Amino acid sequence: MLEITIDIETIPPPTSEDDKHTPEVWQRLALDHHRAVVVAIGCEVHGGRKGCMLADPAVADPERELFQRFELWIKASNHAGIRWVGHNIAGFDLPMIFKRAVKYGCSALARATFLSKPWDTRAADTMLMWPGKRSKLDDIAEFLGIERPPGWENEGNHGDQVLALWQAGQTEQIGIACMSDVELTTEVARRLRAIGGTW
């Protein structure tokens, strides 16, 4: 079974210029399963390639085009099933991907990302693997002494800054930030498995 660490980046839905939302509302909309727009999908195949697919702001429907490309990649990669690795993937990333795969008719992607329950064995969620209260990825990594991979130098949560980067046309920076999360998650999962866990 192929193991892939995954992370997505999202922005709020397009809106009119005179629609004035507070930063808190924008952030909530960017996390809304039915209203947010996915603009980046970062992946690392364990023992293989890694990279980030970015939505193209120049096309008519950037999210649809992104998911059509990701569907083709999944079809080419999914030979014996996929086991996903990520942070909060059971509650956020995989449901977001599944819903959009259904919306855009990406059947192979929908089948690959559907989880019948949060503890489905096809998903290794580092948030669920870490005992106690729900912890942020960076908090777990810092506790374990794992440094964030280089590439995201700005302070603060980059998820809060994705919209500004998108509006500024800095999509490559979104990809760098996304892959920083992917690589950090891979290292955290590797550390947890090193103790002999069956995740």
N to C succession of SSEs = EHEEHEHHEHHHH
Count of alpha/pi helices? 8
Distance between the termini: 14 Å
By CATH's scheme, which homologous superfamily applies? Ribonuclease H-like superfamily/Ribonuclease H
Helix content: 40-55%
Describe the sheet with the most strands: 5 strands, mixed
Rg measurement, Å: 16 Å
Strand order of the largest sheet: 3-2-1-4-5
Low-confidence segments, given as residue ranges, are none
SS-derived structural category: alpha/beta
Number of domains: 1
The CATH architecture comes to: 2-Layer Sandwich
Write down the overall mean pLDDT: 87
Total number of beta strands: 5
User: How would the global form be characterised?
Assistant: globular
* CATH topology value: Nucleotidyltransferase, domain 5
CATH class: Alpha Beta
Proportion of residues in β-strands: 15-25%
Description:
It is built from 8 helices and 5 strands, in the order E-H-E-E-H-E-H-H-E-H-H-H-H. With about 200 residues, it is α/β, with parallel strands linked by helices. It has a single domain, classed as Nucleotidyltransferase, domain 5 (2-Layer Sandwich), CATH 3.30.420. A hairpin with a 4-residue loop joins strand 2 and strand 3 (about 50-55). Helix 2 packs across helix 4, helix 3 runs antiparallel to helix 4 and helix 6 crosses helix 8 (about 170-195). It is globular, with a radius of gyration of 16 Å.
